[in-house]
Write a structure and sequence with these properties.
By secondary structure, this protein is an alpha/beta fold. The chain has helices spanning 3-14, 26-37, 49-59, 77-88, 95-101, 105-114, 129-140, 181-199, 219-234, 246-250, 252-258, 276-289, 315-328; strands at residues 17-20, 42-46, 67-69, 120-123, 150-158, 165-171, 204-208, 239-244, 270-272, 293-300, 306-308. The chain has two domains: 3-141 and 302-328, Rossmann fold, CATH 3.40.50; 150-293, Rossmann fold (3-Layer(aba) Sandwich). The protein contains 13 helices and eleven strands. The chain is globular, with a radius of gyration of 21 Å.
Amino acid sequence: MNVITRIRQKARQLGKTVVLPESEDERVLRAARDATSQHIASVILVGERETITCKAGDLSVDLSDIEIIEPENDPRREEYIEELYRLRKNKGMDREKANEWLHNPMYYACMMLRQGAVDGVVAGAVLSSSNVIRPALQIIKTAQGIKLASSCFLMLLPEHSSGEEKVFLFADCGFNPQPKPEELAHIAVTTARTAQLLIGIEGKVAMLSFSTKGSATHEAVDRVVEATRIAKKLKPELLIDGELQADAALVPEIGRLKAPESEVAGKANVLIFPDLNSGNISYKIAERLAGATAIGPILQGLAKPVNDVSRGCKSEDIINQIAVTALQTEF
């Protein structure tokens, strides 16, 4: 059974509810129907009912089992306005501004999540990543004990000799451009946690660099060394090592040669990149040249799950993120 199938099966057992605020997009409507019919999660759409049903009718998409929330007519709207005002008043928010924000379906979806009406949010088919992440940070905020939100990609590489998949997590590939050592440490700890939650594997975390165990000296290397030290202090039981070059992290023979004392070298399944440039470039190279399937970006560290999808996504990608979001409720 492949990883995506396992994730979807685990989601079915949880019975969660996920809201999709981009309710006029064809891919979103098809994903809502299919995720519901496959019992991956209950789905709620946010938007104008008549517009949504007309669009679905044109596409022959059956929404009979899917709840549609119209923000203007929702009985909980006043509750959401009051809570948003309370949450943001120290930043200049008044009730009129709160009401204005809640005309935006993404903000409305995040307030539904904050107030417990749903278990998660998935968006990004239409909205840019910044317009998904900003409301999540403003309304949901980060989880207790987590210094910052981050993202990871679940990378599934075909193993041609056995027919099975090799599974890795890459982070941060879509969120933090130049993390400081403490931030990089939190990214490492959070991504290892995501590996355990989503696919039930023990994270073997490699803090990547262009140096392995002092083979080069540079302030960029020092930053990775310090991040490794902090991560080990935050989570002493975590299998984590650095600084490691990518070959030392991934290839057993090279790991033994370059870092013979390491428990991670040559065995890593969680790769922590030193900055967004290297992370984003690497996941795209793995996807385009190595035939990897990339699931994500999976947002981590939020108090409640909100997930982004690419604007170039297919409906299947949205369904996968619905399943991932359902699993993240178990943090």
